Amino acid sequence: MNLTRRMACATCRRVLTEDRHGDQVEYRHPVVEAPHDVVPVDADHVRRPFDRCHTCTDELPVWNYRTGLIQFLALEAGILRTYNDQWHVCYRCAQHIEADDIGGLTARCAGIVGWRAGSDEYTQ
């Protein structure tokens, strides 16, 4: 995916991920699906599109990683959440990913939102 030519959802202003199937392109909301349908428009036509790293949310993304679909099951709440299979990542997070430094990536992301090591949020 070319992160210099971005599409955004006209409804929520989030920059979308792009999935190509031959000549067809499907746009999806980043990370987790939104409660509305995707309305793709050129991000240059959206006032202040939300375009942040999908892991730390602190910086602009420069890289796109593809994974399998990731699912999170909260047993007590009975919630199953399916995440996207594409991740727009900033330079600093990409450095941790490329070094296979999951602890460093977790510490970076948790520190940005203020989660302390050992807390439930940090563990998740």
Main sheet summary: 2 strands, antiparallel
**What is the overall silhouette?**
globular
Supply the number of helical segments.
3
Helix content: 10-25%
Rounded to an integer in angstroms, the radius of gyration calculated over CA atoms is 15 Å
Q: Work out the number of β strands.
A: 8
- How far is the first residue's CA from the last residue's CA? 28 Å
| Amount of beta strand | 25-35%
Mean model confidence by pLDDT: 89
Runs in which pLDDT lies below 50 for 5 or more consecutive residues are none
State the secondary-structure class: alpha+beta
Question: Overview of this structure, please?
Answer:
With 124 residues, the chain is an alpha+beta fold. The chain contains 3 helices and 8 strands. The chain has helices at 91-98, 102-113, 120-123, and strands spanning 7-9, 17-21, 24-28, 40-42, 63-66, 71-74, 79-82, 86-89. The strands form 4 sheets. The protein has a two-stranded antiparallel ribbon. The chain has a two-stranded antiparallel ribbon with strand order 2-3. A hairpin with a 4-residue loop joins strand 6 (71-74) and strand 7 (79-82). The protein is globular and about 45 Å long. The mean pLDDT is 89.
Task: Summarize the entry for a quick read.
This protein is α+β, with helices and mostly antiparallel strands and 124 residues long. It is built from three helices and eight strands.
